[in-house]
Amino acid sequence: MSFKIAVFVCLILMGLVACITYYLGKKVSNSLMKYIPVFSFAIGVLFFYIKLNFISYKPDSFDGIYDMIVIIILIIVCSIAFLEAVIIDIVENRKLFKRSYMAVRKATKLVDVNKAFKFKMPSGIVKKIRGYIGLSR
User: Fold this and answer.
1) Which of 84, 90, 82 is CA-nearest to residue 38?
2) pTM, 2 dp
3) What number of other Cβ atoms are within 10 A of residue 18's Cβ?
4) pLDDT by 10s per residue, the chain, length 137
5) One-letter-per-residue 3-state SS of 83-116
6) Which of 67, 65, 73, 69 is nearest to 6 (CA)?
């Protein structure tokens, strides 16, 4: 399979996955719409990975190197798209995250922590320690 045909097939697969994800996002969940680029680029990486490993090349051709370069580029773009989707998710739900953060902060105030981890020594040990301190002076 030549490189031009592989790129064309990959673009068709990525477009098909984008259309399916868009349809599912409209029908099932709107939050799925943020991940359309992630799914599309992941399918592109998967296609070129399968092509690299399972389709034989002509001797002395650069197709294997081109496939590796395309895989690296698609992985980088897919990672950026995933980070973008996560950041959008955090920004949209910042009130939820703020409430959770404030609840954790209230639960771990210094006063509550001191009450939970306060160490009480038995009075007999305290008297012995005071006695030894008094004798050493």
Assistant:
1) 82
2) 0.64
3) 16
4) 678 888 899 999 999 999 999 998 888 887 788 889 999 999 999 998 888 888 877 777 777 888 899 999 999 999 999 999 988 888 887 777 666 666 666 666 655 555 555 555 566 666 666 666 655 55
5) HHHHHHHHHHCHHHHHHHHHHHHHHCCHHHHHHH
6) 67
